[in-house]
Specification:
By secondary structure, the chain is α+β, with helices and mostly antiparallel strands. Helices cover 21% and strands 30% of the residues. Helix 3 packs across helix 4.
């Protein structure tokens, strides 16, 4: 049996998330359906570095699967892309050690979140960035995110629906940049909780709009209570950018 690691990109606009769900279109179900065709009807399960929610995109999601077939790596990419829908692309395929696991071997992830500040809605950005037509104080936001760097219990920045008990994570990098009306938030850490990046963005936006002070981030962390943080930013602005191994 051979194990293959794939880097995939997808436009999450038309999906109910990455993970298989009954009677819903998901990224995992689309890829597994194609693999079943390649394997003449046999089900091939794929494992990913993590799930993404409805409407969330990926530039560098990582998956792995096992196959008795010994195709060349470039042949795998050609075969998969020829049958996958146009909103999913296999960027690279690599044969790896059978012990490799896309989720458990991941050492870190990078997420990016995009918003645009145009006074008017742009129909061509509606699925790929969050429309936020209000002024922002980026310097206050940059001051605020300094309190988030390092290792903390991020219970306040995690969906209350999560079943994960250990909510301690390390954020190594946060950057906020602006080009024209586009604002990009960049997060790199050893792992992220359910909705964590979107809640971080929503809270930083409240700082940037003057609803909170930068130092309020310290108290939010200390409370370890989701109700103290800001709103969850919409999914369409979020991208799983890269997975580190």
């Amino acid at each position: 049996m051979n194990r293959y690691k794939c880097i995939i990109s997808y436009d999450g606009s038309g999906y109910s998330g990455y993970q298989v769900q009954p009677n819903k279109r998901t990224v995992q179900s689309q890829i597994e359906a194609v693999l079943a065709k390649i394997h003449k009807g046999s089900h091939v399960k794929i494992s990913a570095s993590g799930r993404t929610d409805a409407g969330v995109h990926a530039k560098g999601q990582v998956i792995h699967f096992d196959s008795p077939l010994s195709l060349l790596e470039e042949k795998w990419g050609l075969a998969l892309n020829s049958m996958l829908p146009e909103d999913i692309s296999v960027v690279a395929v690599e044969k790896v050690d059978p012990a490799f696991h896309a989720r458990f071997d991941a050492e870190g992830k990078e997420y990016r979140y995009f918003l645009y500040q145009s006074p008017k809605r742009d129909p061509f950005q509606r699925n790929y960035a969050f429309h936020y037509p209000y002024p922002l104080n980026l310097e206050d936001m940059r001051e605020a995110y300094k309190y988030l760097l390092g290792t903390h219990d991020f219970s306040s920045f995690c969906s209350a629906r999560t079943e994960v008990k250990d909510k301690v994570r390390t954020i190594e990098t946060i950057e906020i940049s602006q080009e024209g009306d586009r604002v990009c938030f960049r997060f790199i850490g050893n792992g992220f909780l359910y909705n964590m990046v979107r809640i971080l963005v929503g809270t930083l936006l409240e700082v940037g709009s003057g609803k909170r002070q930068p130092k309020d981030i310290m108290e939010i962390l200390e409370k370890k209570d989701r109700s103290y943080a800001g709103k969850t930013a919409p999914g369409q602005g979020l991208y799983l950018w890269k997975v580190y191994y």
